[in-house]
Amino acid sequence: TSGLPAFIGRMAGTLFILTAGISSLFSRSNVKRGLRVFGIGMLLTVATYVLDQGLFIKFGILHFLGLVMILHPLLNKLKTDLLAIMGTIILVVGHFFSQVTIPVGFLFPLGLMELGFCSLDYYPLLPWLGVFMYGMILARVFYQEGQDGQGGIKKRPEAARAYRANLLTYIGRHSLIIYLAHQPILIGLLWVLNQLRTLVTG
């Protein structure tokens, strides 16, 4: 996909991952949630593979979010300045990776693709981990006084800040549902395309 639809999709993905990075600091169960999200991502891989072996989801946003949630306890130990440096490097390197192809096909989760690689939904660790890390940084900047030292955030007494914290907590807890809402559309589109191809080829 290219042009305006691709741009809109990438912007939506960027905002979603940025929000996930922010809300991750409000949860003490990121690993458990990460395993669940990654598992659902694998189920989608199987479902889309059954529909179309050439265009199934190999490493979509659910695989990505599940993995970074699992990694979150390690990422959260990094100081903010180091997190910013690493996030920037990941963004730059990830952009470079997207411009090249390699002769092997198993490094696609890192953003390294072989020639002809195709996936219905694709969010590799590089560069998208950098976006997630920037979300973590934003959470620290605006809520750093409320960090409880355990990867979570204490509620502040100020009403406005408490409201924002509760809002982000709600988004974080329901981000999976928010994203999954459009997955049936993707799968349905894949089914339609597969049926059309079958009719055309006889």
Keywords:
two-stranded parallel ribbon, 202 residues, mainly alpha, 2% strand
Write up this protein.
67% of the residues lie in helices and 2% in strands. The protein has one domain (4-201). Strands 1-2 form a two-stranded parallel ribbon. By secondary structure, the chain is an all-alpha fold.
Care to give the gist of this entry?
The chain has helices at 4-23, 30-51, 61-75, 80-97, 125-143, 159-180, 183-201, and strands at residues 101-102, 113-114. It has 202 residues and is mostly helical.
Which helices and strands appear, and what pairs or packs with what?
Layout: H1 4-23, H2 30-51, H3 61-75, H4 80-97, E1 101-102, E2 113-114, H5 125-143, H6 159-180, H7 183-201
Parallel strand pairs: 1-2
Helix pairs in contact: 1-5, 1-6, 2-3, 4-5
Question: What percentage of amino acids are in beta strands?
Answer: under 5%
- Number of individual domains: 1
Main-sheet strand order equals 1-2
* Most strands sheet: 2 strands, parallel
- Give start-end ranges of low-pLDDT stretches: 148-153, 155-160
Level of helix content?
Answer: 55-70%
Tell me the series of helices and strands, N- to C-terminal: HHHHEEHHH
User: What is the helix tally?
Assistant: 7
Number of strands: 2
Structural class: mainly alpha
Shape: globular
**What's the N-to-C terminus distance?**
26 Å
Average pLDDT over all residues: 80
- Using the CA coordinates, give the radius of gyration: 18 Å
